[in-house]
Amino acid sequence: MDSINKLTELFRKFPTVGSRTAGRFVYYLMKLPKERIDELTSAIQELKNKIKLCQLCFQPFEANEIVSGSPRPAELCAICSDTRRDKNLLCIVEKETDLLSIENTKKYNGLYFILGGTVAMMRKEDISQLRIEELKKRVKDGNFSEIIIALNPTPEGRTTSVLVEQTIKEINQNSKITHLARGIPVGGELEYTDEETLESALEGRK
Ligand SMILES: [Zn+2]
Hints:
Blueprint: H1 3-12, H2 19-31, H3 34-50, E1 51-53, E2 60-62, E3 89-93, H4 96-105, E4 111-114, H5 124-127, H6 132-142, E5 146-149, H7 155-171, E6 176-179, H8 195-203
Parallel strand pairs: 3-4, 3-5, 5-6
Antiparallel strand pairs: 1-2
The structure holds zinc ion.
Zinc ion (ZN) binds at residues 54, 56-57, 59, 76-77, 79-80.
């Protein structure tokens, strides 16, 4: 495969990028001066070298970032290593952007767990895409008084919520399991829900 086709193929795999856009990216890059290309390639390299996944919630974070003047444990993100957060509360979300949406409401002070996706059916090969084993470990080690399942109210989100609830109950019967209150439109996604609606869904959880 020649370099143009190879690069087009790589860009085509990016979210929301189709073959046409991928082609445009390649032709755009061809016109850039060498310094800009070097800048771009080293930024991509750095992303892989500096960004780590939090060992507790699986949020990506900049490894050598310093929080409130003191370095924190190398394996934990800013939220998980923040002693002011409520360690009795765990909120399970599908993806990083959902975590950010909930953080933006400023109404939640507990911890998170990023599941890494949702499934349409309870098929083994689909379920294996999710962090179910990691979740079991987290629930076992965490000793949470409440676990909030905050998945999107889409069919996939609901199927996955059932799976997550079963998983938690197998490990631990002491944690209270809650769900976001209705209010987020059916089929809607946390990411696109306005702060006020998300806030009341969070406060009205049951
Ligand atoms: Zn974390």
